[in-house]
Design brief:
The chain is an alpha+beta fold and 306 residues long. It is built from 7 helices and 17 strands. The site of 4'-deoxy-4'-aminopyridoxal-5'-phosphate has 15 residues, from helix 5 and strand 14.
Length: 306
């Protein structure tokens, strides 16, 4: 990390290198932490950095904290303000990614959630594209299963559950794929390693519902709104079977890091005609316009760092 960067750590903005924790930290040993991931887009015309939907990200972050029995006085608004102060201290003039983390901060042995000190840290890093963003990705259906709400709740970005995503991702990459879709315990498609999934069948946009062991994605919600409001599409939240991904006309993944990622092959089968489909391309274009603050109607989602 750059010497001039900062971190929010134990209630203060400090030089990045001063934000250090012990190897005995509970969260490091037991995965008792939750994180967020927020993109900041640099607007060269306005010479300003804009965070995309930070309030929604922090709302979900505090919900994950609640699941882990953490109590913070912060609100989505106060955390957004801290983030703005941090980013101003860093002085970014490029696209970035912000990583807030809430964690069980006490050192020591003993797995539990209660009677432990909770802390929040935040840092930012330079960030471009993530994964295969330009042409279509080739995904596999993972042999791993998605963590279940009754195992480690996937509706919060709980650190420990990302061992599941890491197992899925590395198997996929090492087998020559770009990404993987993972099935839940019932055999339905849940999501990717860090992305929600959408398919188009007969002009209808379909995505798994939030009770199907997915993260309640903010990009997912954004794309649903854009599909309905800008394209007049019917959007249906329902279970997706594995083989439907082979038969879909279009398939894509959404996430803060991945943005809108087109999928053109699933386990060596072409999706549609093997080229990025028209609905996906339109949604990707709309999404890019919205995150870059080019659509006035949605400018309340772009929070300026000023
Ligand atoms: N699913 C998982 C497992 C993720 O980690 C992410 C990335 N945060 C997503 C979906 C997409 O969520 P969002 O659009 O809020 O970034």
């Amino acid at each position: 990390m750059d010497q001039n960067l900062h971190a929010y750590f134990e209630g203060k903005i400090v030089p990045f290198g001063d934000a250090k924790i012990s190897i005995a930290t509970h969260a490091l040993n037991y995965g008792t932490a939750a994180f967020a991931g927020i993109r900041g887009y640099w607007n060269a015309d306005q010479k300003k950095l804009f965070l995309f939907r930070p309030l929604e990200h922090y709302k979900r972050f505090l919900q994950a904290a609640k699941i882990l029995m953490m109590n913070f006085p912060q609100t989505p608004e106060s955390l957004t303000q801290i983030t703005i102060d941090l980013l101003k201290a860093d002085g970014w003039e490029q696209d970035i990614y912000v990583r807030p983390l809430c964690y069980k901060a006490d050192p020591g042995i003993g797995v539990r959630l209660h009677d432990l000190r909770d802390e929040i840290s935040i840092f930012a890093t330079a960030f471009g594209s993530y994964g295969k963003n330009e042409d279509g990705a080739h995904v596999t259906i993972s042999s791993w299963r998605r963590v279940d709400d009754n195992v480690i709740p996937p509706r919060g970005k709980i650190s420990g559950s990302y061992a599941n995503s890491a197992l899925i991702k590395t198997d996929a990459i090492r087998a020559g794929f770009d990404e993987a879709l993972v099935l839940d315990q019932n055999g339905h498609v849940s999501e990717g390693t860090a992305m929600n999934v959408f398919m188009v069948r007969d002009g209808v946009l379909i995505t798994p519902p939030i009770y199907e062991n997915i993260l309640e994605g903010i990009t997912r919600r954004t794309v649903i709104d854009l599909a309905r409001q800008e394209l007049g599409l019917q959007v249906v939240e329902r279970s997706i079977d594995r083989t439907e991904t082979f038969l879909a006309d279009e398939l894509f993944l959404t996430g803060t890091a991945a943005q809108v990622m087109v999928v053109t092959r699933v386990d060596h089968r072409q999706v549609g005609d093997g080229k990025p489909g028209p609905i996906t391309l339109k949604l990707r274009e709309l999404f890019n316009d919205v995150v870059h603050g080019k659509m006035k109607k949605y400018s309340h989602w772009n929070v300026a760092v000023e």
